[in-house]
Each structure stands twice: as C-alpha cells, then as structure tokens.
What does this fold into?
Amino acid sequence: MEANQGQPGRISVLVLSTLGFTLMFAVWLMFGVLGVPIRDEFELTDVQLAWIIAVAVLNGAIWRLPAGIAADRYGGRRVFIAMLLVTAIPAYLVSTATSYSLLLCYAFLVGFAGNSFSVGIAWVSAWWPQRHQGFALGVFGAGNVGASVTKLIGPALIAAIPAAGFIGGLVPGGWRFIPFLYMVLLIVMGAATWLWTPHREIRPGQGRSIGSMLIPLKQFRVWRFSLYYVVVFGAYVALAAWLPKYYVDVYDMPLSQAALLTALFIFPASLLRPFGGYLSDKIGARRMMYVTFVIVLIASGILMMPYGYIVLSMPNGEQNAVLPWEVGTVLFTVLVFAIGCAMGLGKAAVYKYIPEYFPKDVGAVGGLVGSLGALGGFFLPLLFAYTGALTGFPQSTFFVIFVVSLVALAWMHFTVVKMLHQASPKLANKFEQDNPSTNEYESMLQGSGVGK
It folds into this structure.
C-alpha cells in the first residue's frame, strides 16, 4: 500500500477532506453558540440546554466505528461525500424547530456530522505513507477549528439577519439562519469533493470480513488510547460547547465577546494539531502525551478552585479572612488557552499511535477510539451541568476535567513503567544501587589515588 500512498492525488485528498471536516465539525458543535439564544427563546434551564448539546455530540460518536469500517471497505471518498449530503437534511430541520422536543430530535440527527472524523482519518491514511502520517493526520485533524466557525460568524449573523428572514421567510432569520446556511454549504462541499478528488479509491479493508476487521479491538491498548482521547478530544468538544455559556454566566459577558474568547481556546486546540503530529513523528507520541496531561492537570487544577478567601485561625480563636482567591477573565482565558494548546498536541499524538500499531485497521481502530473519545464529549457537558447544580460552583467544570485527566495519566504511566520492567526485568524492583563489593571498593580507591 506504500506505493499507492505515494501517487499524485494525496494533496487534493488532504485539502478537500480537511475543508469538509472543518465544515462538518462546525455543524456538529454549532449549539455551543446557538444554545444561548435558543435558551432564551425556549426558556430552557442549563440542564435542558446541556442535553441539546449532549445529544448532538452523542450522535457524532456512536457511528464512528461503523463509519471507519465502511471507509476502509468501500472507500473514504464515497462515504465522506455521502455524509456531507445526508447531514444537510437535519441541518435544515434544525432551522425549522418550534419546540424543545423537536429541537432535541433535530439536534441528535444533525450530530451525525461528527462521525466524519473517522471516515476522513481512514481516507487520508490510505493515501499518505506512514513516515508522513503523523503530519498528514494532524493537518486533517486541524479541521477541529470548525468548532470556532460558529463562534466567529454566529453572533454577527444572528444580529445582522432580520428575525423574519428573507424571501417571505423561506430563508429564516435570527439564530435559525445559521443551520440553514450550513445546509447550503454542506451541499456545495459535497459537490466540490466529488469533482476535485481522485475517483480511484484505496480500500485497505476490501475483501476482508467485518469480524477480521474487529479483531484488533480486543487489544487492551485500544481502550487505553480511547481514554487518552476522552481527555484531549472529548473534553475539547465539551469545553468548546460549554465555554460560551460559562463566560456569559460567570463573567457576565455579551455572547459575541464570549464566543471570541472561546475561539482562543479552539484555535490552538485545532491549529496546533499538525505541529503535534510533526513532534510525534520526531520525538514520539508517548512523550507528547506526558506533556499534554501535565499541562491540563496544572491548568484545570487552578481553575477548579472555588472563589473565596483563605481563612487563618489565630491562637486566640479569632479567624481572619485573607488572601482573596478569584480567577479573573485574563487569567481564566490564559489557562484555558494553555489547555487548548495541550489538547491540540495530544490529539495528534493519540492518532500517531494508531497507524503505527494497526496499519491495516486504521478505520476500525480509529473509529472506536474516536467514538469513545467523542462519547466523552457527550457525558462531560452533562457532568458539568449536574456537578454545577449539585455544588453551586461553576468551577466544578474543571474539577471534572482534572479527575478524568489524572486517571488517564496514571494509567499511561503505569503502562510505561510496566513496559520498562518487562524490558529490563533485573531492574524491576531496584530503587537503590547495590553496595559495591570489597574488591570494587579497593579498585575505586586505587583509581582515585587514595591510600597510595
């Protein structure tokens, strides 16, 4: 397959798949910004809004494994184009929703866009040689920047388009214009991909049974990679959808400013992915994951602390409140930016593992890892909402991220230590150097000139 991967056409595959994925990602996470005007129109609670965000993420996760297998068996190009065109239908339906129940249903259906990731990963990896796959998959994965598209254009378009829309309401106005616009762009993108990518398909799964393609999923390391991806992608998806509301509620910002500051998290989390792929090619994915987890833990550990005062108890029984603690807008944005940078590097590192360990099953393994990682994006907003309601502290959002990241780091470190012990069993339980023998001690003295 290396020969196939070197043929002309791989650049157009990478460019068109990345553009298509960027658009699909924007569609998938559009409720991060649309959620605020939707909440106002339908008079929703935070938990109800969290469910709208969550069901869209859910449908963008559950089909990733079969979509990746389909790309390996039938070709990434035709599956990718089909997904673009199919997703245009529920995108239009979202713009017509008149009740909370309908909105939940349509949000779930439009979330199908999120499954484009596993198809694109299989398609790109089939066309690019292994020595460049970290970079190529990183470029494709930078399509995550689509999460910021609605943040950047949404508030301005919502304000600019009249509520009555155009052409007698045929083109809807207000927040409903955004999903309508995405419907048009999905159709155009499907046509462009059909016209300007090679019609020949590279199908690494052709002729193989479904059972044989699922065999690698029995390996425990696949599930470990999935947990890593929950941290670097699931939490990214959750924060991309949750941060606009967080800025509005905690810092009392207008939606337009909240969306722009959220984009400062999304951009590095997306655009650093190619660089993360390059670094993973050069220094290894495992080192990159250590860097990722440490940064996320430090930043989320600071952000999860409730605001208030450190109280000192004096010997005479008096208590004095000193050292007020509060994370202002600037510090909050800087720490969230750092989390975004770490996640951008980590996402590329996780998918560097997959073609190295499973070169013939990128679709299936990548689909499962992506599916379980994206399911993190389903559960985490709900955990944010419920822990916030339980504790009364919005900072509990970052406590959830801290705990999940700590578990992932502990599992990875345990695995690394176990591998090192297996490679050097004689050193498995040695924490101190053995005492030198008498002869060795005398040799050291003689070599140093002592005692002569």
